[in-house]
Write a structure and sequence with these properties.
This protein has helices at about 10-35, 40-50, 60-80, 85-100, 100-110, 125-145, 190, 205-215, 220-275, and strands at about 110-115, 120, 155-160, 165-170, 170-175, 185-190. With about 280 residues, it is an alpha+beta fold. The chain folds into three domains: about 5-75, no CATH class; about 80-120, no CATH class; about 125-278, no CATH class. A hairpin with a 6-residue loop joins strand 3 and strand 4 (about 165-170).
Length: about 280
């Protein structure tokens, strides 16, 4: 029998490594697939695991697999998806001829044509980038406002009969909605326990139903369930907003890097022309 008072340190670390090993391996595989845009390397590893590392006898097939592996290695290391190994060689030569870095091409993203090896136009202007940033800043502020509801401890409900919407804690119910110039209708447990319960601003019928709800011993469980659903929905909404903001910022960064590259290419072109001008 195991001692409940202690456990072996090796057993703890073994369980920890087992618990994170699978997710880490899956994450690494997905990352390689995303980086290369192909499962070639994974299939090649599985083939070598089953068949061994013996060289292929057919020269044409062997050359094809070697070129495919080299292409995947270029895609993985450069972070740029080119269609063929010849395309990767042409890109490397273009980088050398124009004194550009592979990271600059990667940063430009969709603004660089990897087949024509040139920037694609028309490039966005700085003013457009600033306006886009302002729009997404507005969306981000909305996201922050919505996410503040995550920290609320009030569940939101509606009555089946009449559709009266209200928020509630275990001690109080309050009419939901926007109230600019008046206090919202509300009822507390103390008010509902009085011999002649108050309506708290609700109709008599709604106040009676809300008091029965508030005094129900099972109401706390309903509030906990409502809070879980609310926070799950808000979490999804935050993820959507965050993805939109990150995507917009990435596009803006690509546009900015494209403008910088275009400026560098124009300067180098002028430097090459000037020595021969009269």
């Amino acid at each position: 029998m195991g001692n409940p008072e202690f456990v072996g340190l090796f057993e703890v670390w073994a369980k920890y490594l087992v618990s994170i090993g699978g997710p880490l391996a899956a994450s690494g595989t997905l990352y390689v697939f995303w980086r290369t845009g192909s499962a070639h390397l994974l299939r090649l590893r599985i083939w070598r695991l089953v068949h061994g590392k013996a060289a292929l006898h057919d020269a044409t097939v062997r050359r094809f697999i070697d070129e495919r592996t080299s292409l995947m290695a270029f895609r993985y290391s450069a972070g740029i998806s080119v269609r063929s190994l010849e395309g990767s060689r042409r890109l490397i030569l273009w980088l050398e001829d124009h004194d550009e870095d592979i990271a600059d091409v990667r940063a430009v993203g969709r603004h660089f044509d990897r087949e024509q090896l040139a920037l694609t136009g028309p490039l966005p202007r700085q003013g457009r980038l600033i306006r886009a940033l302002a729009v997404w800043a507005l969306f981000w502020s909305v996201c922050i406002t919505v996410s503040s509801a995550w920290f609320l401890e009030r569940g939101y409900f509606s009555l089946k009969e009449g559709g009266q919407r209200f928020s509630a804690t275990t001690e109080e119910v309050r009419a939901a909605g926007i109230h600019f110039f008046a206090e919202p209708a509300s009822l507390t447990v103390e008010q509902c326990r009085q011999p002649a319960p108050e309506t708290g601003g609700f109709s008599v019928h709604d106040a009676s139903v809300l008091c029965s709800v508030l005094l129900d011993s099972d109401f706390a469980r309903h509030i906990a369930k409502a809070l879980l659903l609310q926070r799950t929905g808000i979490g999804f909404l935050i993820c959507i907003y965050a993805a939109g903001v990150v995507g917009a910022l990435m596009k803006m960064r690509q546009a900015k890097k494209a403008l910088e590259m275009a400026d560098r290419l124009r300067r180098r072109e002028r430097q090459m022309v000037l020595p021969f001008s009269f």
